[in-house]
């Protein structure tokens, strides 16, 4: 697969604050990479480095095999970006701003623009200062999605959008991905990342702490099991790989390391299972483990 | 009623705590500026100094610039009279402007930034903020008045009486309160803080120009002008405090109007209507230059109109000036003996003053780029194929253009009104005005260079350029009246520029300043393309 974004050992300090300590990951063509981490972890800083808005102190960062700082002009012709807080000129209308952004980017598609305005239900005639947070976000999204690019960088793009509009956004991302484009999506809405991302990159305190496909990451964590048995369920508490065991009568809830699922099942069948439910870890569980740890 | 202002006192003390440094600098710098020149004037008044100064300041052009005196004959002119004559109007003007900026900053600006929304969600009355701000400003101006009075008395100079000193201080303090109330009203009427600031400064400028006219033609009319209520008290001579009472009543009425307006409007809105906009952008907007023109349009138009009015206002004085020379033998002798025409000498001074004011606009245009940057308006544009050089040079280009148009407008309107009001023969013609204006172009470019330099290397210092500009302005405005040491006047850039039409064109200094300015711009450029853009900081 063609590597579109490649970061290795990127560092960045603001005065004494070490915002990025060691950031390395890649984004391939046709891939949606979810970029998640707690507040202040360095997501936006990483993205601004990629965009050439700020200059990294050390490490390598390339997009389309070009240096993000030195060759930013050539890179920018082929990328679209939506910040998490789209800030607009109060006395221009949404329509004017969208047209301006499209024009400055190039490769705009007029029909696409009008279609997106309709689907996002934006009134383009209003002055931007009267837009709500969600509507400002829509202006940024419409502008970015109306142009042809090879890489889309979204920094919390849906903050403030209602669920219907978020669905429109997700459809659009799926379409871009189908077309073989690369997408870097930073978000705190984990269900969104879970639905869209092929790969997840977790950053904490300026360092990447986990990278992998969702499946692979799930494998590393525990499944939550709810079980009801005829025999005494208490025996399962001491099995290898069982954690957070919680029993009420014949009923138990616990989590189990995925590697031990088989041995658990063997014991359970002997107890006479009445009910059994296994819930794979959500991204949220994964996330919590990293955030708290 | 009570509920509207509930807990304003909490905000008030909060503001004092938050602003104390600013307040200290404000009171000290303005207070010392207004009162500290007594020894200097004392020296000037020795010997024939007072009489010479009296005669010079009888020139309508001088009354136009610095205001009138109540004294009718040179023999009665005293140190106190001269001090109030030369200092009171300007000190009052500064007090007004600073207070106005402070009030807009604490009311409309906070509203624009969304801070008001947060504050109102607590148990704080809807109008508590305005009340707290206006009380704070009144307190500051009261302290300012006391400081000015005390410092002046402390010099223990002849004719600087206790009564006069405190009246002098009180006039300046009252000017500050006047400025604050005008600003408070404009903060309700306009729909943004920049609109409120612009219109308040515009009103103050207009009051200044109107008073200039009425002071020269018929001072009775000036009595209807709020700005004039400050210097018409004539401290040290008439000591007429009644104007301060008018001013206080006027302020009270203005504050009540402002509170009524504020009570009746929604937060975040103004009284001027919003029009529905277009759903597609005009072709003219679809480029960086188009965008920048659009963003700077209001500021540019307002300033350019102001420059034209200013030129016309100063130009209208030429006729009176000739009449004055005709009737005043002493002054005419003075000018004849030096071989200088008074029109020429006045033109060179006024030209320089106008050029300094014209420089404000180009600085504002360059600073705008950084404002846009910190407000995150450009985030999405930075990620397009638009380069930083493109943004930078478009700003510099637009700013230079604004400077040139400003110079031309100011000098043309000065020329036209001057040439049409002069009844006697004069050595001036249209070319001498335009030439004098264009001759000062490098000085405008120099300030663009300074703005570019800060934009590239220390963008948060962009506003400091106005301080240097203001300093240059003061030296030029008062340089002819005060006898400053050479090194002091040399510290203003404009003293290095040939004062045309009095001096002849100097190609040397013209090119040197031009070159230095270009270098500053290039140094600024090299910083701007290298530095981190300030986002999220
Ligand atoms: N321009 C700057 N100057 C100083 N510190 C900065 C600057 N930009 C970011 N930081 C700091 O760098 C760290 C990383 O910030 P960043 O904005 O990248 O976090 P984030 O992961 O995007 O957080 P969030 O989820 O809240 O958006 C924070 O500690 C932040 O305070
Ligand atoms: Mg962020």
Sum up the structure in keywords.
heterodimer, A: 293 residues, alpha/beta, Rossmann fold, Alpha-Beta Plaits, 2 domains, 6-stranded mixed sheet, 4-stranded antiparallel sheet, 10 helices, 14 strands, elongated, B: 537 residues, mainly alpha, 25 helices, 73% helix, globular, binds adenosine-5'-triphosphate, binds magnesium ion, ATP hydrolysis activity (chain A), ABC_transporter_ATP-binding (chain A), ABC-2 type transport system ATP-binding protein (chain A), ATP-binding (chain A), transport (chain A)
Describe the fold and architecture.
The complex is a heterodimer of chains A (293) and B (537). Chain A is of the alpha/beta class and 293 residues long. Chain A is 34% helix and 32% strand. Chain A contains ten helices and 14 strands. Chain A has helices at 43-50, 72-76, 94-105, 110-119, 133-145, 163-178, 190-196, 214-220, 261-271, 283-292, and strands at 3-14, 17-28, 32-36, 58-63, 66-67, 79-82, 151-155, 182-186, 199-204, 207-213, 222-229, 242-248, 251-257, 273-279. In chain A, strands 6-7-8-3-9-10 form a six-stranded mixed β-sheet, sandwiched between helices. In chain A, strands 2-1-4-5 form a four-stranded antiparallel β-sheet. Chain A has a four-stranded antiparallel β-sheet with strand order 12-13-11-14. In chain A, strand 12 and strand 13 form a beta hairpin. In chain A, helix 3 runs parallel beside helix 5 (133-145). The longest helix of chain A is centred in the middle third of the chain and has 16 residues, at 163-178. Chain B has helices at residues 8-35, 38-44, 49-57, 60-66, 79-106, 108-113, 115-120, 128-154, 162-189, 193-217, 219-222, 228-231, 242-264, 288-315, 318-327, 329-338, 342-358, 360-374, 379-382, 388-421, 430-439, 441-457, 464-479, 486-490, 507-528. By secondary structure, chain B is mainly α. The mean pLDDT of chain B is 87. Chain B folds into two domains: 1-39 and 88-271, no CATH class; 288-537, no CATH class. The A-B interface holds A 14, 44-45, 48, 51-55, 72-73, 76-77, 79-83, 85-90, 92-93, 95-101, 103-106, 124-127, 130, 140, 143-144, 153 and B 192, 274, 276-282, 285-288, 291, 294-295, 375-377, 379-387, 530-533, 535-537. Bound molecules: adenosine-5'-triphosphate and magnesium ion. Adenosine-5'-triphosphate binds next to strand 2 and helix 1 of chain A. Chain A: Keywords: ATP-binding, Nucleotide-binding, Transport. Chain A: Residues 5-230 form the ABC transporter domain. Chain A: GO terms for molecular function: ATP binding; ATP hydrolysis activity.
